[in-house]
Amino acid sequence: MKNTLSALWIFVMFNYLYCDLFDLMDPAQTNPFEVTPGFLLAAAALMEIPITATLVSFLAPYRPNRWTNIGAGSVMTLVQIWSLTVAPPTGYYLAYSVVEASATALIAVLAWRWAAPAAAPAEAPANPRRARPPGRPSS
């Protein structure tokens, strides 16, 4: 599951990147926001969510991994849907948004359904003849 979630975050990040690149190339595209240092800081913080989720998905143990993916996938899905309400979207932005929101929602759903790994079996004693039930004195 770790590799799947990490790969999905990489997929999402490439979609974010290419959509933003298309925005820069579109001569008709206007920015509905005033681009200030504060706006750029907020945008950077927002993009750190999927960047960090990519790394956490690959490296973290089950519990923090699962909850990070549920949270990050949910937040990024809502942000992507909200972005469609800021200004009328172009065709390419709408197409990318459908892919991005679907992928981040899939991440959240997969993480939600991710079952805890089975506990490792207890180690058998090295010499079974020497094992004693608890409370029995040795002879």
Automatic annotation (TrEMBL):
Top-level taxon in the UniProt lineage: Bacteria
Keywords assigned by UniProt, alphabetized: Membrane, Transmembrane, Transmembrane helix
InterPro entries the UniProt entry points to: DUF6326
Pfam families found in the cross-reference section: DUF6326
Residues passing through the membrane, by range: 35-60, 67-87, 93-112
Protein name: Uncharacterized protein
Annotated source species: Sphaerisporangium rufum
